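Severity: low
Component: inverse-folding endpoint
Summary: output formatting inconsistent between runs
Steps to reproduce: submit the following structure tokens with default settings.
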């Protein structure tokens, strides 16, 4: 399945807003003046897919209000549906689609195949659910999905006594032979490659007979806020969950409460629009911005000022203003040295911002993003350097030295964040052509519509 070729007869998040590309690609629009706009962003993918799993394992029906409708969330829905969970679309009050009623199965049943696409949350969160089902469940996905790390989940399930057949690959495809129960108990895994390994085991652990006492054994743990998001989602459903020490989490066995949940806007998907304010010398306001959240994207409010942005946080919105232009005619964007180990998903868009700064930037702590939808460090260096940039790969990061850029082809690598990064570059550089803007459907099908609305 190609990421830009996506059809779901019953669950169609696009409506009439599918991105349109020519055979040559999507010509990124260039901003002719500073932008000044207010936008709303659809729901969080990270929250939606966590709540889908918890709702599927709950003790009754739950409603997700304003969930994200995208390829990743549709794959999660279809995977859970294959195990017997029932879904009903309901009219929503928001502007980005319906609410979703989730009714758990009386008994989870395997004997099915789940398509993970390129979604890390699907390939990692659903195998523990499948272990609770009766019968074999085979997992596979897009071609590059077979290269994404899976060892933490596979080793974890093996450690819990689950029969999982991967022919020793430590990657997709594999089959989980569910027996309807998982014993649970003490477990050690190395989650250095992805925090999703931890979240995957915690989300289902309340349904394990002994819960879980999980320890991370690796030297580093990336994207810790995503694990904190998982812990908060479990606690909100009455699960007894704790983090008694750094790198250790406990979940007690017990029911997962059925509740109705409001899904926050995806703050990481707001990143390209907020970065656009700086690149064009304008301002962008995002509505619905929560005062308190576990989302990694909330760090934009403190990261962007490091580049010179002025940030205003209102009761229900965040506004980012570009800095004043520098005396030599530059954009006034400062270079920044940042440890982004907690915010790896923001890196691609921030690299585009750094390319237009008045000085160099160094981003470290992000070696793990080599294993995201693509090797993002190599991809960012290749695409920016191909347009005249000066980006150097480090062991765990990137060094960006601003240089005059020119137009040309920008490869997205079927990676939604690479595609939006190309769009940012195109704001200030005429002639940038993104080869696969449709891959933004992974988490934001409305990207091109919102981008054009931003530009007026």
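Observed output (run 2 of 3):
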């Amino acid at each position: 399945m190609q990421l830009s070729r996506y059809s779901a007869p019953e669950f169609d998040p696009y409506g009439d807003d599918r991105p349109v590309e020519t055979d040559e690609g999507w010509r990124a629009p260039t901003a002719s003046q500073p932008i000044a706009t207010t936008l709303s962003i659809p729901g969080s993918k990270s929250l939606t897919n966590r709540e889908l799993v918890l709702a599927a394992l709950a003790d009754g029906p739950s409603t997700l209000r304003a969930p994200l409708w995208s390829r990743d969330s549709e794959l999660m829905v279809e995977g859970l549906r294959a195990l017997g969970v029932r879904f009903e679309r309901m009219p929503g009050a928001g502007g980005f689609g319906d609410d979703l009623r989730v009714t758990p199965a009386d008994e989870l049943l395997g004997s099915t195949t789940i398509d993970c696409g390129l979604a890390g949350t699907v390939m990692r969160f659903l195998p523990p659910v499948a272990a609770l089902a009766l019968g074999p469940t085979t997992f596979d996905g897009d071609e590059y999905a077979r290269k994404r790390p899976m060892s933490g989940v596979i080793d974890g399930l093996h450690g819990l006594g689950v029969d999982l057949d991967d022919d020793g690959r430590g990657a997709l495809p594999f089959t989980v032979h569910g027996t309807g129960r998982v014993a649970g108990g003490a477990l050690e895994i190395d989650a250095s490659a992805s925090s999703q390994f931890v979240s995957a085991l915690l989300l289902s652990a309340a349904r394990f007979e002994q819960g879980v006492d999980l320890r991370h054994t690796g030297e580093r743990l990336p994207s810790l806020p995503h694990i904190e998001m998982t812990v908060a989602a479990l606690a909100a459903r009455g699960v007894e969950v704790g983090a008694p020490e750094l790198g250790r989490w406990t979940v007690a066995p017990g029911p997962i409460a059925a509740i109705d949940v409001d899904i926050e806007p995806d703050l990481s998907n707001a990143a390209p629009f907020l970065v656009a304010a700086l690149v064009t010398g304008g301002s962008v306001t995002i509505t619905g911005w929560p005062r308190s959240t576990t989302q990694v994207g909330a760090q934009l409010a403190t990261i962007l000022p490091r580049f010179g942005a002025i940030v205003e946080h209102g009761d229900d919105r965040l506004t980012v203003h570009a800095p004043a232009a520098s005396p030599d005619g530059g954009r006034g964007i400062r270079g920044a040295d940042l440890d982004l180990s907690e915010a790896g998903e923001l890196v691609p868009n921030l690299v585009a911002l750094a390319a237009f700064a008045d000085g160099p930037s160094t981003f470290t702590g992000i070696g793990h993003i080599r294993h995201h939808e693509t090797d993002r460090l190599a991809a960012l260096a290749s695409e920016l350097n191909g347009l005249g940039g000066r980006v150097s790969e480090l062991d765990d990061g990137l060094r960006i030295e601003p240089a005059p850029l020119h137009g040309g082809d920008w490869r997205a690598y079927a990676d939604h964040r690479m595609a939006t990064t190309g769009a940012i570059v195109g704001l200030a550089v005429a002639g940038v052509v993104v080869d696969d803007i449709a891959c933004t459907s992974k988490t934001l099908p409305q990207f091109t519509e919102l981008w054009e609305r931003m530009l007026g």
